[in-house]
Amino acid sequence: MAGIFDSIPIITVVLFTLGLVGVIVYERSRSKTPDDSDS
Questions:
Q1: By the 8 A CB rule, do 15 and 8 touch?
Q2: In 10 A of CB 18, how many CB atoms?
Q3: How does pLDDT run across 1-39, given as a tens digit for each residue?
Q4: Quick one: which of 3, 21, 1 has its CA closest to 13?
Q5: For residues 1 and 29, what is the distance between their CA atoms, to the nearest angstrom?
Q6: CB-CB neighbours of 37 under 10 Å
Q7: Please, what is the Cα angle at 11 between 6 and 15, to 5 degrees?
Q8: What residues form the membrane-spanning segments (predicted)?
Q9: How far apart are CA 19 and CA 13, in angstroms?
Q10: How far is it, in rounded angstroms, from Cα 28 to Cα 37?
Q11: What is the DSSP letter of 39?
Q12: DSSP 30
């Protein structure tokens, strides 16, 4: 059972990273529309 608790921080970091990547990809795909080109 200790192995599960040992891997909790790793799972948290992976989920957090996936969330960040998802938000970045979503924002980039949204900014592809020629409404507001800020770059």
A1: no
A2: 10
A3: 667 788 999 999 999 999 999 999 999 988 876 655 555
A4: 21
A5: 42
A6: 8
A7: 165
A8: 6-26
A9: 10
A10: 11
A11: -
A12: H
